[in-house]
TrEMBL record, chain A:
Classification via PANTHER family: EXOSOME COMPLEX COMPONENT RRP43, EXOSOME COMPLEX EXONUCLEASE RIBOSOMAL RNA PROCESSING PROTEIN
Keyword rRNA processing attributed: yes
Pfam families documented for this protein: RNase_PH
GO biological process: exonucleolytic trimming to generate mature 3'-end of 5.8S rRNA from tricistronic rRNA transcript (SSU-rRNA, 5.8S rRNA, LSU-rRNA); nuclear mRNA surveillance; nuclear polyadenylation-dependent rRNA catabolic process; rRNA catabolic process; TRAMP-dependent tRNA surveillance pathway; U1 snRNA 3'-end processing; U4 snRNA 3'-end processing; U5 snRNA 3'-end processing
Protein name from the UniProt record: Ribosomal RNA-processing protein 43
Keywords: Cytoplasm, Exosome, Nucleus, RNA-binding, rRNA processing
Encoding gene, per UniProt annotation: LOC112052204
Keyword presence, Transmembrane helix: no
Compartments reported by the entry: Cytoplasm; Nucleus, Nucleolus
SUPFAM superfamilies for this protein: Ribonuclease PH domain 2-like, Ribosomal protein S5 domain 2-like
Domain Exoribonuclease phosphorolytic: 31-166
Automatic annotation (TrEMBL), chain B:
Gene name for this UniProt entry: LOC112046843
Listed InterPro entries: ExoRNase_PH_dom1, ExoRNase_PH_dom2_sf, PNPase/RNase_PH_dom_sf, Ribosomal_Su5_D2-typ_SF, RNase_PH
Coiled coil: none
Domain Exoribonuclease phosphorolytic residue range list: 21-150
GO biological process: nuclear mRNA surveillance; poly(A)-dependent snoRNA 3'-end processing; rRNA catabolic process; U4 snRNA 3'-end processing
Top-level taxonomic group: Eukaryota
Pfam families found in the cross-reference section: RNase_PH (PF01138)
Taxonomic source organism: Bicyclus anynana
Protein name: Exosome complex component RRP41 isoform X2
Family in the record: Belongs to the RNase PH family.
Database matches in SUPFAM superfamilies: Ribonuclease PH domain 2-like (SSF55666), Ribosomal protein S5 domain 2-like (SSF54211)
Amino acid sequence: MTEVYKHIHPSKYFNDYINQDVRPDGRDFDQQRDVIININGITSADASAIVKCGNTTVVCGIKLELARPKAEEPDIGFLISNVELLPLCSSKFRPGPPSDYAQVISNIVSDIVINSKCVDLKDLCVVTDKLAWVIYCDLVCLDYDGSIVDACIIALITSLKTLSLPTVTYDNETEEVKVDTGVKIPLQVHGLPVATSFGIYHKLPRNIILADPSAYEEEMCGGIGANLIVCWNKGLFCGIQKFGGCNLSTEDEKRTISLAKQRCKLVEQVIETCIKNGEVK
Amino acid sequence: MPGPDLLSSQGLRLDGRRPNELRRIRCKLGVFTQPDGSAYLEQGNTKVLAAVYGPHQASKSKSSTEAVVVNCQYSMATFSTGERKNRPRGDRKSLEMSLHLRQALTAAIKTELYPRSQIDIYIEVLQADGGAYCASVNAATLALVDAGVPLRAYVCACTASMAWHGGSPAPLLDVGHVEEAAGGVVLTVASLPSTGSIALLEMSHRLHSDYFENVLSRALQGCRDIEVILDKAVRDHLAEGWTKQDVVTV
């Protein structure tokens, strides 16, 4: 019966819950979903991580390749990330070329990672102007239930932290490249950017902030893409973005920033524990 | 003629299996919340996810008044193979696999029950170590069962190859990537084991017709074994009492 009501009158269904100060899945407005991380699940990838934020599931697979650096920047390597929103993960996404939304999310994730400078691209250079590593990070969303950027960033950072680069020997005269996968050096990852998504629900007299919205809540709060995304990087505030959607008051903005900071600490702990357990094995 | 090193002198294969041994299969139904039906299946190191949406309204161009339209999309993650795969979908191999999947699954679905509707089946290969098509068919069957789509029978797929052991032929069951790459013949069979019928049959390389029956029957036996495993997984899943839809009380 409730399923029927939810489909016929989604706004009223949602409003009834909000008026009682609770969300349809039983959480408080500020409560965020649990994070589950699993590393090294995909052995064909050089590093991998599977992250579940509530029901949202993202797999990150990293592949390494060697390439020639760009002429204007001869001593830096490449870090290329890409988010794929498959039709498998939600009925909202149709098969075919990447939708606008997927490209926007790809861009947001890429910006957060590049701007946080968590990987020093100079570390990826093997021989100046001749050989550099290219790190391809492919994030595949398997189940879309809101807060996709959060899950993607966690998966990406966790896999980067578990990535090791093989040693490469380059002979200058013969231009021969030898890759030794036996001896691997772990990649240096500085900092740990964590993103937190918020949905803003339009309600008189004051708009309501919902932390970590699910897919249904995102739809109610202005559609996918109208989320407020706040980034923290180990105690340093590193980014905030909001494209459209409802208005945000300045007190609420301060509150979201402090909520995101707490979340950052929690996620850091989860990632460190996961990696430590992985190494023990 | 395939290299004799596919089988060692003790009769063991390159990964230590016996010739008629399947790789370990682990599967789980109902892994995702968004699709109507979903399943995850591991066959050795090959890891495949399947999601089913439907039956739902068909787009005007594809709609058929007699039967449901089955739409399959086979996609490999870029990190699934040894070399990074640049085009995960839309290349010829993926389109061919999607078509084969559609043919195999349409044979099992009771298509006449849903005219003017469409069933979407999406397959994502997370790790490919040989037999990705077979794992996809098996995972898709489980996902269809999880979605509640009526099937005539389970569809199971299996590969078989041929090796020589001390001069006598020894058919190999369930070829892995290394054995495929070694250049031996690979026969892929998708069948409905309980009815004994074959939905899809494909063979690569050459095989002498004297040995064909042997390899085919080995593959069909593999399909029957896989059906037992899938059936057990479905029964275990239902015994847990977990269903995605609300439980109906009478």
